[in-house]
Design a protein that fits this description.
alpha/beta, 9 strands, globular, Rossmann fold, seven-stranded mixed β-sheet, two-stranded antiparallel ribbon, about 200 residues
Length: about 200
């Protein structure tokens, strides 16, 4: 079991769970969950973002396809005293929350391009393998996002310059989008803050 720290808070990460890295911490630094909001974190991993949202007073649903990740995240939630504010659910993307809407959706998707012949596809590798063009999961996320956001709701997610940010912005043309960039040695990370447009008041 490894242990990582974020602003003095300790989180345990089991060997079967993808450890938080620059992209997770970029999301954590910009997480704006608010008390009373309903928050969804997709692909919770060790649970760091779900826990931070719960500590801010939000009611959180945290999902993952990896059962080991949910066990790890639940243990961390217990350690931080917020297990009663987080509903952990097993499943892929929006499947566990079908028909539900949220004020904030947070996601650190698999976004690195991996040729089909090089894909390993086990639970740990699924946390970062994004298919041949890096968009296998991102596109499905963007397609499902609108039906899971409340009016005025928002989403916060990251992607790499290696996985076609132009296509992402095109798919988000019905939203208001803000972008924060962070340079890394072999790529650029984009943090996207997406907000639904409220209907005009006549």
């Amino acid at each position: 079991m490894d242990r990582i720290y974020y602003k003095g808070k300790a989180f345990e990460v089991s060997p079967q769970v993808y450890p938080p890295a620059e992209d997770t911490f970029l999301l954590a630094d910009n997480l704006d969950a608010r008390a009373g909001e309903r928050v969804l974190e997709l692909g919770t991993g060790c649970g760091i973002l779900a826990i931070l949202a719960a500590e801010a007073g939000a009611e959180v649903v945290a999902t993952d396809v990896n059962p080991a990740a949910l066990r790890c995240a639940r243990a961390n939630a217990v350690a931080h005293g917020v297990e009663d504010r987080i509903d952990f659910r097993l499943g892929d993307l929006f499947e566990p929350v079908r028909g539900e809407r949220f004020d904030l959706v947070v996601f650190n998707p698999p976004y690195l391009p991996v040729p089909s012949e090089e894909s390993i596809g086990d639970m740990l590798d699924r946390a970062w393998e994004g298919g041949p063009d890096g968009r296998a999961v991102i596109d499905r996320f963007l397609e499902g996002l609108p039906e899971h956001l409340n009016e005025g709701g928002r989403a916060l997610f990251v992607q790499s310059s290696l996985s076609d940010i132009t296509r992402t912005l095109h798919m988000l043309r019905a939203f208001r989008v803000g972008i924060l960039r962070r340079k890394l040695p072999f790529e650029e990370l984009f943090l996207l803050r997406v907000t639904t447009l409220l209907p005009l008041q006549l």
